[in-house]
Amino acid sequence: MTLHDAAPEAIPESRVPGTDAPASTEATLIYNTNAGGSERSSPDHLVEALHQLGYHPVYRATDSEADLVHALREVEGTVFVAGGDGTIRAATLHLAGREGVVLGIIPMGTANNIGRTLGIQGDPLDVIAGYRGAQVQPFDLGRVTAPWGEDVFLEAFGCGAFAEVLAEYNPDDGKSPLRAVQALGTALSAFDPTPIVLTLDGTPEPDETPYALLEILNTRATGPRLRLATTADTSDGLLDVIRIDAAHRDGMLTYLAALARDDFEALPSVLSGRAQVIEIPYHGQAFHVDGEVHAPEQGAVGSIRVECWAGALRVLVPGTPVDAVATPSQGTTL
To answer: What distances in angstroms separate CA 262 from CA 107, 176, 249, 267, one per listed residue?
Structure first.
């Protein structure tokens, strides 16, 4: 039985009067001091809001990797992370697989792909209020074994047009979803990939295919809100595999319009599926792991294995998610 199939955990029954929160809940607030946000999202405001929900948070300011490592070294209970997808990713890499820890996301970034997939969005204080009567559900991760080493991703891993765009994309020019979508559309029209044979759960595809886009997603979107897997479920124990055969790709405007309509997977040129294990031949092409890029290596060869790490985390989700995952997830009411 995989972790995401496990029976719901027992949660303490005692409550704070008038709330759905446990009577005494140990918590840690990780706050990225470089994150944006309104005046209502200062650490003091967030700590007070968590107190009102019945938590007893310890605030940890982090503005470096060393700070984060120190703050999470022996953490227990619920860890609330206030920041963007990069901050959440950094914290997750230290929390994955750890017993006795629940992650609470307070999105304060630009894209917030992780929070949006879980139905967590809005003003930070509203997000915390939404955790009243929240559920705890599993959250899968992706594990990558590649010639360059091992990686873990929360959002997506892939090669092709988006990896090439990301290698050229300069966040210092501004994190613009529109600019990224336009760059992706242009790259999809012109990118000339190497044919490969993809293997899904041990079954090789019948032919070599040059993929203009090959993305393995855990969340619905990656990068600056590029919603490529519109029904992805982070608790189903599977990864969504989105690909476009370069020989049958559409024009740039078609992809731009599909992304705007939020039905990218519905395009005839887009192939989608789900798998636990994906194997990809490596010919030195560029790959991205979430927002990090492994640059092309001319002449390199090998193989890449991507597998779903089912239930690697436990996360809080709102009691009535605004944009919940399509398949109802097994959860436990707090």
So the answer is: 21, 17, 18, 11
